[in-house]
Amino acid sequence: MTPIVKAFFDPETNTVSYLVQEPEGTACAIIDSVLDFDHASGRTDTSSADQIVAYVRDNDLRVEWILESHVHADHLSAAPYLQQELGGKIGIGEQIVTIQDTFGKIFNEGTEFQRDGSQFDALFQDGDSFHVGQMRGDVLHTPGHTPACLTYVIGDAAFVGDTLFMPDFGTARCDFPGGSSEQLFESIQKILSLPDETRIFVGHDYKAPGRDEFAWETTVGEQKALNVHIGQGKSIEEFVEMRDARDATLPMPRLILPSLQVNMRAGQMPPADEKGNVFLKVPINKL
Ligand SMILES: [Fe+2]
Predict the structure, then answer these.
(1) DSSP assignment of the chain, as one string?
(2) 203 C-alpha vs ligand 1 centroid, how far in Å?
(3) Which H helix or E strand runs over 238?
(4) Ligand 1 center to residue 92 CA distance, Å?
(5) Ligand 1 centroid to 261 CA: how many Å?
């Protein structure tokens, strides 16, 4: 089964959102959408998500799923907006409860913030499957970047979120709370055990030395041969040493604080105050 995959690249956050469509039919799923957010002004905008809405409407598609590979730390999810416009169920990994617990504490959320994943329509475990029209999707739990990261395998296409990036860029950071480079190594082995011809669609691209164009599609075979962090059978020891040293040099993503507060709520803003105003918090010296 070879689904039709349409990518939407957001240059502001280097995020790739995907629309996965059954080859003969109108059912589709949206993976890792973006709600535009200007941090300086606190303004949201739906321009990026509206490109997906327009594509769905122009092609008469039926959205069955709005999937998150994980709780993103670098962009806000547009899942609730897309659901309102297009329908579909919002799904994420069941380990979201760990993320909600960790960041519920960091942001001092009250008891009204449920830490049971109930903001989402579906919580997936490793080995679960779902359907997009006639296509079957399989869920792999691939933690390391975060505890709740999933890879969605739909037909011959694997949507790996932030685990592997393009072979010339490498792999995702593992230094957020609950991250683990050992776990990421094991998760990547799981992805690399898929057939060599499996198409891999990555969650971000930042270009790479010697490459001045954005790219997001590769294969398991190419990753095994060429990935600069993990290809050619790198050992877990080599990988962990490289990854942890590199992570120690990385700044926090620009939008981490707003992203986490919104994305841990399935893309909803925190509840408004009695006058209808919505606020996000900046915890001091916590991250
Ligand atoms: Fe991420």
Answers:
(1) ---EEEEEEETTTTEEEEEEE-SSSSEEEEES--BEEETTTTEEE-HHHHHHHHHHHHTT-EEEEEE-SS--SSSB--HHHHHHHH--EEEEETTHHHHHHHHHHHTT--TTS--SSTTSSEEE-TT-EEEETTEEEEEEE--SSSTT-EEEEETTEEEEESSB--TTT-B----STT--HHHHHHHHHHHHTS-TT-EEEESB---BTTB-S---EEEHHHHHHH-TTTTTT--HHHHHHHHHHHHTTPPPPTTHHHHHHHHTTTTPPPPP-TTS-------TT--
(2) 8
(3) helix 236-247
(4) 13
(5) 14
The residue to which tokens 């990026």 are assigned:
48
φ, ψ dihedrals at 122, nearest 5°: -145, 140
Ligand 1 centroid–CA 254 distance in Å is: 12
CA 176 to ligand 1 centroid distance, Å: 9
Q: For residue 45, list its beta bridge partners.
A: 36
pLDDT at residue number 139? 98
Residue the block writes with tokens 């769905």: 56
Q: How far is it, in rounded angstroms, from Cα 132 to Cα 5?
A: 13
Eight-state DSSP code of residue 76 = B
Say how many Å lie between the CA of residue 253 and the centre of ligand 1: 10
Residues near 87 by beta carbon (within 8 Å), at least 6 away in sequence: 62, 63
Ligand 1 centre from 274 Cα, in Å? 33
d(CA 74, CA 135): 30
Taking only the tens place, the pLDDT of each residue in 16-40 is 999 999 999 999 999 999 999 999 9
Token pair in block for residue 248: 């120690």
Q: How confident is the model at residue 189 (pLDDT cuts 50, 70, 90)?
A: very high
pLDDT, tens digit, 9 for 90 and up, residues 81-104: 999 999 999 999 999 999 999 999
